[in-house]
């Protein structure tokens, strides 16, 4: 950004793919969206006051900020509308999020594609709808908590993958 003459202050996420042959990283995307699962999982580990960090960034005072991170591992499982990434039905009712977050104090559900309908029901209005996120002492505990919370959500028209974190578990 500096080489392009564009001042940038904020969060920049770099999505990397590791080449199988060389083991070298390749940049496949970059973005700055706080609604993405890549950011949600980081927010679970951030112990610093995010509002203060953002205010310092706006005021040009990031040199005065020291970020504090939890040593725990975190993992996010995305719950999406059936049919995503293709066409999907909007307006399906999602229940039991309170029960899902009660699985553990280390569980947080981020909303990415939800709204309240006229009757006060929580409904899906997007493709990627929920980021069910959990922390744990290791990746296995974080994964178990996240999937326990996912299993508590009552949303027949939603789906998720059961293979999240399998590579990390294989290598731990």
UniProtKB/TrEMBL annotation:
Entries under SMART domains matching the protein: GARS_C (SM01210)
Keywords, ordered alphabetically: ATP-binding, Ligase, Nucleotide-binding, Purine biosynthesis
Any single Pfam family the record assigns to this protein: GARS_C
Known EC number: 6.3.4.13
Example GO molecular function: phosphoribosylamine-glycine ligase activity
ATP-grasp domain span: 10-59
Signal peptide: none
SUPFAM superfamilies: Glutathione synthetase ATP-binding domain-like (SSF56059), Rudiment single hybrid motif (SSF51246)
Gene Ontology BP terms: purine nucleobase biosynthetic process; purine nucleotide biosynthetic process
Pathway: Purine metabolism; IMP biosynthesis via de novo pathway; N(1)-(5-phospho-D-ribosyl)glycinamide from 5-phospho-alpha-D-ribose 1-diphosphate: step 2/2
EC class: ligase
Entry-linked PANTHER family: PHOSPHORIBOSYLAMINE--GLYCINE LIGASE
Name the UniProt record assigns to this protein: phosphoribosylamine--glycine ligase
Classification of source organism: Eukaryota, Viridiplantae, Streptophyta, Embryophyta, Tracheophyta
